[in-house]
Amino acid sequence: MITMEIAMNKFASLLIGMALAFSAFQASVFAEEALDEKAMIQQLQAQAEEKEAKGNHASAAKLYHKVGKRQKEHRLKAQAFLKEADCLFEAGKTFAATKAYKELMKEYALYVPFERVVGNMRKLAEDFVDGKGTLFGVRDKSEAIDTYFFILTEAPSIAVSLSDRLRLAELLVKEKRREEAVVVYQEILKLDPMLDDVRLEMALVLLDLCKNGDGDGSIRRAATRHAKIILEHNPEYKRREELELILAETIEEEAGRLLELGRFYLRPVHLNPAASKKYLLEAVQKFPGTKAAWEAKNMLETDNRLRNADAKAVEDAK
């Protein structure tokens, strides 16, 4: 019995010794692998720097990407991926550089030198506009817009300039994305309501939107409201003629709407001379001097149905 116990103890000691030896072996292997990995990173880093120094930025970018993938520390990853993006930028790889900067800003914002990165992204956005570095030199305003949107949403406000917002709005207008442009203009005016040029540009975009339909006239009224705001606080505004044109067009439009209602109620299916006369008189009284008011007045003087419309019925129509 004692002999068996001694044997079991010896066996247990043997197992413990083997486990300790294996652990030591594993630690040695891991240490060697760590050294090998560190050496590999240093080698890739040196190769990347050499390529970059020689102006071979595209190859350097690939090597910096490998360095970033191998690094364990977040800060070191960010450094490598920043170098990758910078090299792609220098290589004129517009799409690839933009993608790299976006990923960098999303994943490693804490380590991004935003002023420089945002500056490069602005240049990349304009490269898309000019077709520089794109496939077959195709101009791509949509990518430029996406890049500016990304700058506005991902970069800290201190790195975003008024010109970024204005350029985004300008590109949206050129791409016929007027509703989005209006939203951008509104955001700008929230930051500084005294930017008259921005307010006027928004009013002009709103007028363009009216051409696609403005059922209740709310879009045109909004454009008019912005024009009046400018004139109220800046009567000597340098682009006053454009403001006056907006107001004149609005007056003509409102008068025209009343004229059309007057005509509508003279159609056989909807015949109601009293209602027609009400709208025509309103056009003449509220908007004298307009083309619509002149036509309304002519109808009132020459159409017997209107001339004979009962005064009380007209009053009731009001």
Secondary-structure-based class equals mainly alpha
What is the ordering of alpha helices and beta strands?
A: HHHHHHHHHHHHHHH
Low-confidence stretches: 27-32
Largest sheet: none
Helix proportion of residues, in percent?
Answer: over 70%
Q: State the helix count.
A: 15
Gap between N and C termini, in Å? Answer: 119 Å
Rg, alpha carbons? 36 Å
User: How would you sum up the global shape?
Assistant: elongated
Structure description:
- By secondary structure, the protein is mainly α.
- The chain has a domain at 254-318.
- It is built from 15 helices and no strands.
- Helix 7 (162-174) runs antiparallel to helix 8 and helix 11 (240-264) packs parallel to helix 13.
- The longest helix has 52 residues, at 2-53.
- The chain is elongated and about 130 Å long.
- Mean pLDDT is 87; it is low at 27-32.
Summarize this, please?
The chain has 318 residues and is mainly alpha-helical.
List keywords for this structure.
78% helix, mainly alpha, 15 helices, 318 residues
List the helices and strands and how they pair.
Layout: H1 2-53, H2 57-70, H3 74-90, H4 94-107, H5 114-130, H6 141-154, H7 162-174, H8 178-191, H9 196-210, H10 218-233, H11 240-264, H12 273-286, H13 291-302, H14 304-307, H15 311-317
